[in-house]
Amino acid sequence: MIPNFKDHAANERTFLAWLRTAIAIVGVGLTASKLTGAQMPGWSDVAMIGSGGLVVVLAFLRMHLLRRRIDAEAELDGLSRNWPDVVLVALLIAIVVLTGIFIAHVA
């Protein structure tokens, strides 16, 4: 049996949820712009795909940091910087930017 299996499984499910969210927003945004037939500037396609990629990279980084924290033997002290939470804030900012680009893209 894998030590801390439930924690690792929850970590991977969270990563996959972030991945699905980024793929859905990018996919719906690009599809909606193509279906409307409106001319979109090239930067909006690139910005949408780039910000979706940023969400995926940040989600992977957070998953990796939490995996190391789950496997750590030592007890964490309250004074150390909580890097997974810092990455989570960056991830939330990236998803807000991605959603903003989506709205600008289909509007």
Automatic annotation (TrEMBL):
Record flagged with keyword Transmembrane = yes
Could you list this entry's UniProt keywords, alphabetically sorted.
Membrane, Transmembrane, Transmembrane helix
InterPro entries named among the record's database cross-references: DUF202
Q: How does it sit in the membrane?
A: Multi-pass membrane protein
| Coiled-coil annotated residue ranges, if any | none
- DUF202 domain: which residues? 6-66
Query: How is this protein named in the record?
Result: DUF202 domain-containing protein
